[in-house]
UniProtKB/TrEMBL annotation:
GO molecular function: homoserine O-acetyltransferase activity; homoserine O-succinyltransferase activity
Protein name per its UniProtKB record: Homoserine O-succinyltransferase
PANTHER family reported for this sequence: HOMOSERINE O-ACETYLTRANSFERASE
Gene: metXS
Location within or outside the cell: Cytoplasm
Gene Ontology biological process terms, A to Z: homoserine metabolic process; methionine biosynthetic process
Binding positions (substrate): 220, 347
Protein source organism: Inhella crocodyli
Quaternary organization: Homodimer.
Length: 373
């Protein structure tokens, strides 16, 4: 197995405004895209990969610096579970992100100034609508599969619900049909940390030449705690202490680790993007349009499904994946489900667990046979 090597993102410009689910439209916009592998003559071997909160279009390979590795490089490449010798893989940076697609840092054409806090509300459905335009750009009528983990899994589910004719397989990993009240609460605390930062300025901090780093740090620290399992944190840190030479005090290693993660995140992620993406995560609830019935929502679906969860993932627990599976079974849809005993918590979907990768390797081999890849 090897990497796809050095890659170059593409910028796709769209002149047709995008109507938004929560009102208004996004005027002419652009999205960054990366592709790996070759689209076959029948254009039947395309797989769309949807990203989670702090990821991007850079799914595999690297840029000039070999350390700039794509966030799912362990899964995607020649000979890997999602084999780029057989599939044409597409990664799209969602609107509102801070990694190149049109977002709060870009200029609002109506004012000539950065959108900042005035960037319109976007939803999972809006992202999928924009992704569909990217797929149209490549002349692809039907995707072999849509794959995503966490928030990316919600996008994959939305593809299956609102564009059932345009995908053959839906792979939803470590995801949920909506957020629980506890998850909504965690997200609200993270948002309060950001908007309460004096440097936030209602989202218009660009014009003040500052960044609400303190709020971003706390938001990331809180989020990071929820991505890990208790067992992993205990095994990695326990109650071990280290000496903070600058402060001249002893501290628990977990304290130092969380501050490091918060500092790193605040150095590259945009506060407005964080708020926008979190709101999209909170908003997703396909059953809401059907009186709360998830089974009714999935009556529209036609794809074959692969759903996977991880036993120690308490943020997107296996019980939430089983809700999805039950709704699919209620509609007599083709679904396979794997509940993988892995210690890593929610982050397990990014790891190298051999059972998890074996599951996806088997599934994509099946898909390759179906599409002649």
């Amino acid at each position: 197995m090897s990497s796809v090597g050095r890659v170059e993102p593409q910028r796709l410009d769209f002149s047709t405004p995008l109507p938004l689910r929560r009102g208004g439209v996004l005027p002419a916009y652009h999205q960054l895209v990366e592709t790996y592998g070759t689209l076959n003559a029948a254009k039947s071997n395309a797989v769309l990969v949807c990203h989670a909160l702090n990821a991007s279009h850079h799914v595999a390979g690297h840029y000039d610096d070999p350390r700039s590795t794509g966030w799912w490089d362990n899964l995607i490449g020649p000979g890997k579970p999602l084999d780029t010798d057989r599939f044409f893989v597409i990664g799209v940076n969602n609107l509102g992100s801070c990694f190149g697609s049109t977002g709060p840092m870009h200029d609002n054409p109506a004012t000539g100034k950065p959108w900042g806090g005035d960037f319109p509300t976007v939803t999972v459905q809006d992202w999928v609508d924009a992704q569909a335009r990217v797929i149209d750009h490549f002349g692809i009528d039907r995707l072999a599969a849509v794959l995503g983990g966490s928030l990316g899994g919600m996008q994959a589910l939305d593809w299956s619900l609102r564009r059932p004719e345009r995908l053959a397989h839906c792979l939803a990993i470590a995801t949920a049909p909506n957020l629980s009240a506890q998850n909504l609460a965690f997200n609200e605390v993270a948002r309060r940390a950001i908007v309460s930062d004096p440097d936030f300025h209602g989202g218009h901090f660009y014009q003040h030449g500052v960044v609400p780093k303190a709020g971003l740090r706390v938001a990331r620290m809180l989020g990071h705690i929820t991505y890990l399992s208790d067992d992993v944190m205990d095994a990695k840190f326990g109650r071990e202490r280290r000496r903070d030479l600058e402060a001249g005090v002893d501290e628990f290693q977990i304290e130092s680790y969380l501050r490091h993660q918060g500092d790193k995140f605040a150095g590259y992620f945009d506060a407005n993007s964080y708020l926008l993406i979190q709101h999209a995560l909170d908003d997703f609830d396909p059953a809401a349009e059907f009186g709360g019935s998830l089974s009714a929502a999935f009556a529209r679906a036609k794809a074959k499904f692969c759903v996977a969860s991880f036993t120690t993932d308490w943020r997107f627990s296996p019980a939430r994946s089983r809700e999805i599976v039950q709704a699919l079974l209620d509609n007599n849809l083709d679904v396979s489900y794997a509940e993988i005993d892995a210690p890593h918590g929610h982050d397990a979907f990014l790891m190298d667990d051999p059972r998890y990768h074996g599951l996806l390797r088997h599934r994509f081999a099946q898909i390759a046979r179906e599409v002649g890849a």
